[in-house]
Amino acid sequence: MGARWLILWVGFCLCPPLLALEPQQQRVLAQIEARLEKAPQMLGRFEQKKTLPQLPRPLLSSGVVALSRDQGISWRVQKPIASHRILKAAGTGDDVLARQIAVPLLQIFRGNFSALDGLFHVSAENGDDQWQVKLTPKTEAVGNVIASIEVRGDRDIKQIRLAEANSAVTEMQLLELRAVDESNPQFEAEFSAEATE
Question: Domain of 23: which CATH number?
Fold first, then answer.
């Protein structure tokens, strides 16, 4: 699995766009990106449901998410079992989430969907109350890991649905996401030390 992630990560960093977005989709995507609040630091909560084909019931978890333009994403699971990951483009660790979708997730949280056009077909709809973006792989290397990513929101990203190639589905709800100052004590605590493996 590590070799597969390395191929995917190198592809994200080095692969040029395979197809440019159509002009209408470029306009819609620009409208969506303009709606999103893009503060340098944001803090909120998440609720996550992961459905695995081999398990009868989904796995539920919840915790704190912190987004930093410079430091990446802090993903702290508080329930049912405490864990902490800091997702960065250059660091994957051994966690499945971090290993498989660190780079696209970073771009999604930054509201930079157009940056993903190199390896994903990007389909966007912008309504009065809500927008949605669907990403489907353009390459076999990405398709071997990710089947699709669907993102919904308004001024903030509210929901991310990740369908993996192995039929696992992860649904993330982002709650109370708000801009904070970098000196916010809770925000500082999220990035005060590297997450343990």
Answer: 2.50.20.10
Q: How many domains does the chain have?
A: 1
pLDDT tens-digit profile, the chain (197 residues)? 444 433 343 444 434 443 466 788 888 888 888 888 678 899 999 999 999 999 999 999 999 999 988 888 899 999 999 999 888 766 555 554 455 577 788 888 888 888 888 878 999 999 888 999 999 998 888 888 889 999 999 888 999 999 999 999 999 999 998 889 989 999 999 988 655 44
Residue whose C-alpha is closest to residue 73's, from 43, 48, 31, 50? 43
Does some domain include residue 156? yes
What token pair was written down for 166?
């192995």
Enter the pTM of the model.
0.79
Pairing of strands 146-153, 157-164: antiparallel
Residues in the chain: 197
Is residue 195 included in any domain, yes or no?
Answer: no
Angle at 101 (CA atoms; ends 98, 107), nearest 5 degrees: 110
Exposed, middle or buried by CB within 10 Å (0-12, 13-18, 19+), for 118?
Answer: buried
Range of the domain at 117: 2-190
CB < 8 Å & 24+ apart, contacts of 89-92: 89/9, 89/13, 92/5, 92/9
Beta bridge partners of 160: 151, 172
Residue 130 belongs to a domain: yes
